[in-house]
Structure formats: structure tokens, C-alpha cells
Amino acid sequence: MYVNTYVIPVPETQKHAYIDLATTFIEVARDFGALQAFENWELEVPDGALTDYRRAVLAQPNEKIAVAWVVWPDRTTAAQAHKGMFEDPRMHKFDEPPFDGVRMIQGGFEPIAFFST
Questions:
Q1: Beta bridge partners of 68
Q2: Sheet holding 105-109, edge to edge
Q3: What is the Cα–Cα distance from 71 to 41, expressed in whole angstroms?
Q4: pTM to 2 decimals?
Q5: Across 57-75, average pLDDT
């Protein structure tokens, strides 16, 4: 199993545009082999003593934090999917994403502990 994660600062005024992108992204990810995908919108993101989500992405006062993750069967599937996903015609309407992608944090992880019901 392999998990891609994303932390994204999104202007509050772009919430609906982000939901449109997130919904399409999940559909495309599923079609490229994702096992699960989650898109989440900030409701409670406390300020930390040294760092926090908002500081990590240099969020502005008018921005909310979106956190997303995609679960893949393995790293190879994820890598192959990423090549094809962004060439998929469904993603072309988002050539101008509703957020500043330069401040997005992303990474790939191997799960070491989890539970599922």
C-alpha cells in the first residue's frame, strides 16, 4: 500500500471551485487504480506553538486548509497513475487551479499502522 498526501491553502472564495476539482480528481484517481481518496476542508485548524498547517503552507488570512490523501495499491501504481491522470481530458479544465500550487505540500508514504472498518 502507498499513500499520497496533500496540504493545500485555498482561498475561501474558491471553495466551490476546489470542490469541483477535488471531485473530478477523485474520479480520475479511482479510474487510474486508487483504492481510496479523501478530500477534506478546514473546520478546525489551531495555531501551533512552533508550526502548524497554516504556517507550513504560508496560508493567508482569507485561506482555508484542504488536506487530501489517496491510497494506492503500491508505489508503482501511483507513479504510473500520476503520469496519466494529468493528461486525462477531465483534468484539463483545471489548468488554472483554484489555489496557489507553489505552497502546496505533497508527499508519498508507506503506511506503518492503520485500521479500517
A1: 6, 39
A2: 36-41, 63-72, 2-11, 105-109
A3: 18
A4: 0.91
A5: 97
